[in-house]
Design a protein that fits this description.
The complex is a heterodimer of chains A (about 325) and B (about 260). In chain A, the strands form four sheets. Chain A has a seven-stranded parallel beta sheet with strand order 7-11-6-1-4-5-12, with helices on both faces. Chain A is built from eight helices and 18 strands. Chain A is about 25% helix and about 25% strand. Chain A is an alpha/beta fold. Chain A is elongated and about 65 Å long. In chain A, a hairpin with a 4-residue loop joins β9 and β10. In chain B, the strands form three sheets. A nine-stranded mixed beta sheet of chain B has the order 11-10-9-12-8-1-6-7-13, sandwiched between helices. Chain B has a two-stranded antiparallel ribbon with strand order 2-5. A two-stranded antiparallel ribbon of chain B has the order 3-4. The chains are: A alpha/beta (about 325), B alpha/beta (about 260). β10 of chain A pairs antiparallel with β14 of chain B, so a sheet runs across the interface.
Chain lengths: ~325, ~260
C-alpha cells in the first residue's frame, strides 16, 4: 500500500533551497492528517551532511542518493533516481518545488511512473473522508482556482511555488533516519552535456522573504522613480518589488516581479504604488498580511483587495512619507 | 533537419475580465492566440530553417476544429506543414493524456527536433513538453532562453534557472521547450496569409490516424489521472477603506496605520 509523504529536497551547490523547508512544513501537516511520515529525498554529490538539516526542518526520514553525476542538476540522472525511489518505496504523495528544476523533473517522473501531476499548487489538503489529496491551484492566468484530485494513481504528485507554504521552526534535536539509497548510473544516463555553468553574479533579490514590500506599477511613471520606492523600502527595512509591466519595460529586474508569472509573496505589509491590480498581479500578493494601495484612479481593482486605499499620486506621497519617517527616527 | 513544433491555441488570458456582480469569468470576446511560448518555438524553428536549407517545419496541435485559425497563422509565418489532431474522445485530457496523445502522433512522423513552448498561458503547467520527451525516450532541455549553436547533429542551448544558466550540448533527436523571451517572432507576410488560406491545407488527423501508436486507455478525460473536482473564481476578500485626501493627509494616515500594524 502506498504510504508516506515524500518531498523532493532541492539543493544547489550543496545548499538546500528554502522551498524544500517550506514543502517539509506542509508535508508535516499532510502526513499528520494521514498518520504517516514525512520522507525527504536528497540527491547530490557528497551531500549526506545536509540531510540532518531536513530532519531538523520536520522530516522523519531522509533518503539520500550520492553520485558525482547528481552535483549539478541534469534531467535524466535526477529522474532516474526519483523514479527508482518511487518504485522502491511506493509513496502516497510526492511534492516538488515549482522551480526551474522541479518543473522540469516532476513531469518527467510523472510520465515515467504513469501518475498525475498538479502544477503550482497554492493549497494542499487531505480529504477527511476519502483521504485523497485535494490540490488547489490557480488556472486561466490566475482568474480561477481549480481543485484537482488524482484518485486512481499513486503517488499523488504536486509542485508548489516557493513562498506559498510555511516552514516549521527548526528543531536541531529532532530525531530522524537517514537512509542511503543506491542508483546505478551508466554513461547513457548523461544524455546531455553541461558545457558550462554560469551563476548569476548579481545576488538574486529575495522578495519572497521580505517582511515589507514596496511595489511599483506602471503608475510610478518611469524607471528613475523606483529610487523613491527604494528609499521608502530602506526606511521600512523592506524590499522593492514590481508589477509585470515595469519588468517587461526593463525598469527593474525580473526576479522582483510579483504575480502569476512572477513570484508569490505574503509579506506583513505590501504597499502597491501605482499598481492597477490586474488579476495576474493580485494572484501573487493578495494573501499579504496588510495591503496598502496608492493609485490615482479611484476605480483601480487594487482597491478591491487593499486594507487601506489612498487615491493619489504615489510619486508625490511616497517621498513625503519617507521624509516623515526619517524625521520621526531623528 | 526535420522540426516539429507543438502548438496550443489559447484564450488571451490577459484579456479576461471578471463580471464584478457575479464574480464569474467573462469569456465572450476574449481573443484566441498562439500560446506565446509556442510562438517563440515556431520562430526558433523558422530561424533554423533559414540557417539550414532543406529544413522542414511542421506544426502539430491537438484541439478543437477552431484551432485552424492559429494553424493558418503558423503557415503564414513560414511553417511548411500543419497537422491538427482533433477528435471528440480526446477532449478533457489532462497533461498526462495530452502528452500521451501527442507522443502517439509524433511516433507517426519523422523528426530530428521537437520544440514545445515551456508552458501555456491558460494552464501554466509546463508539463506537456517533458512528458512527451519521456513518452518518446528523448533527451529534453527545457526553459531554453537562447540557441547558441546549431548543427545538423546537435544543439548548444542556454538553459535558464533562477540563479544561473547552463550551457548545454544535446545530440539530436531531442525535445526542447522554449521561453517567450527567446526571440521576437516574425510577422506573417501578406503573401503568406494569402497562401495559408488559399493554397495550403491543414491536415486533419483523427484517432483513426494514430490508432497503431496510441494507447486508448491514455487519452481524453478517461485516460487522465487527474480530474478537476471543483473550480471557481477566488473568494475576493472584502475591500477596505479608500480615502481621497491631500498628499499631506495621506502621509498622516499612512504613519498612523504603519504604527497600528507595528511596522514602525
Amino acid at each position: 500500500m502506498s504510504k508516506h509523504v515524500f518531498v523532493f529536497a532541492e539543493q544547489r551547490d550543496g545548499v538546500i533551497q528554502k522551498v524544500s523547508y517550506e514543502l517539509i512544513g506542509e508535508a508535516r501537516t499532510l502526513a499528520d492528517d494521514l498518520g504517516q511520515s514525512v520522507v525527504a529525498i536528497l540527491l547530490g554529490d557528497k551531500i549526506a551532511d545536509a540531510a540532518r538539516s531536513l530532519i531538523a526542518a520536520g522530516a522523519d526520514e531522509c533518503v539520500v542518493v550520492e553520485d558525482p553525476v547528481l552535483g549539478e542538476y541534469m534531467t535524466e540522472p535526477y529522474a532516474k533516481a526519483v523514479h527508482a525511489i518511487v518504485q522502491e518505496r511506493d509513496p502516497e504523495i510526492v511534492l516538488y518545488g515549482a522551480t526551474a528544476i522541479g518543473r522540469d523533473l516532476a513531469p518527467r517522473v510523472s510520465a515515467r511512473v504513469h501518475t498525475g501531476l498538479t502544477a503550482d499548487c497554492t493549497s494542499l489538503e487531505i480529504d477527511k473522508e476519502t483521504k485523497d489529496l485535494r490540490m488547489t491551484r490557480p488556472a486561466f492566468g490566475g482568474n480561477i482556482m481549480a481543485t484537482i484530485l488524482c484518485t486512481d494513481f499513486r503517488p499523488q504528485m504536486a509542485t508548489v511555488r516557493p513562498g506559498v507554504m510555511q516552514p516549521l521552526d527548526r528543531d536541531e534535536n529532532r530525531e530522524g533516519v537517514i537512509t542511503p539509497f543506491m542508483v546505478e548510473y551508466t554513461p547513457a544516463d548523461q544524455n546531455v552535456k553541461i558545457r558550462e555553468v554560469v551563476k548569476s553574479t548579481r545576488k538574486a533579490a529575495d522578495i519572497t522573504g521580505a517582511k515589507v514590500l514596496v511595489s511599483g506599477g506602471r503608475g510610478i511613471g518611469n524607471a528613475e522613480n523606483f529610487a523613491l520606492l527604494r528609499d521608502l523600502a530602506d526606511e521600512l527595512g523592506g524590499e522593492v518589488s514590481s508589477s509585470r509591466a515595469n519588468v517587461d519595460a526593463g525598469w527593474i529586474e525580473r526576479d522582483r516581479q510579483v504575480g502569476q508569472t512572477g513570484k508569490t509573496v505574503r509579506p506583513d505589509l505590501y504597499m502597491a504604488c501605482g499598481i492597477s491590480g490586474a488579476i495576474q498581479h493580485l494572484a501573487g500578493m493578495e494573501d499579504s498580511e496588510y495591503i496598502i494601495a496608492i493609485n490615482k484612479n479611484k476605480d483601480a481593482p487594487i482597491f478591491g483587495v487593499a486594507d487601506l486605499g489612498i487615491v493619489g499620486d504615489a510619486t508625490v506621497i511616497i517621498p513625503k512619507l519617507t521624509q516623515a519617517l526619517k524625521k520621526i527616527k531623528g | 533537419m526535420k522540426i516539429i513544433v507543438c502548438m496550443k491555441q489559447v484564450p488571451d488570458t490577459t484579456e479576461v475580465r471578471l463580471n464584478p456582480e457575479t464574480g464569474t469569468l467573462i469569456r465572450e470576446g476574449v481573443p484566441s492566440i498562439i500560446n506565446p511560448d509556442d510562438k517563440a518555438g515556431i520562430e526558433s524553428a523558422l530561424r533554423l530553417k533559414d540557417q539550414f536549407p532543406g529544413t522542414t517545419v511542421t506544426v502539430l496541435s491537438m484541439g478543437l476544429p477552431q484551432v485552424d485559425v492559429a494553424m493558418r497563422e503558423c503557415l503564414a509565418m513560414g511553417c511548411d506543414d500543419a497537422i491538427l489532431l482533433t477528435d471528440r474522445p480526446l477532449g478533457g485530457a489532462d497533461t498526462w493524456a495530452t502528452s500521451s496523445t501527442l507522443a502517439a502522433a509524433l511516433k507517426k512522423l519523422d523528426f530530428d527536433l521537437i520544440i514545445c513552448g515551456r508552458q501555456a498561458i491558460d494552464g501554466d503547467t509546463a508539463q506537456v513538453g517533458p512528458q512527451i520527451a519521456e513518452h518518446l525516450h528523448l533527451p529534453q532541455v527545457s526553459y531554453v532562453e537562447e540557441i547558441l549553436e546549431a548543427a545538423e547533429d546537435h544543439l548548444v542551448l542556454k538553459r535558464q534557472f533562477e540563479d544561473r544558466y547552463h550551457v548545454i550540448e544535446v545530440q539530436l533527436p531531442c525535445l526542447i521547450t522554449t521561453l517567450s523571451e527567446l526571440n521576437a517572432p516574425r510577422y506573417m507576410t501578406v503573401g503568406g496569409i494569402f497562401d495559408a488560406y488559399r493554397e495550403r491545407e491543414i491536415q486533419i488527423w483523427s484517432l483513426e490516424d494514430i490508432k497503431d501508436t496510441v494507447d486508448m486507455g491514455s487519452i481524453g478525460l478517461k485516460g487522465s489521472p487527474t480530474r478537476v473536482a471543483k473550480s471557481g473564481t477566488k473568494e475576493v476578500k472584502g475591500a477596505g477603506e479608500v480615502h481621497e485626501v491631500t498628499p499631506d493627509e495621506a502621509v498622516d494616515l499612512l504613519l498612523e496605520r504603519l504604527s497600528v500594524i507595528h511596522i514602525i
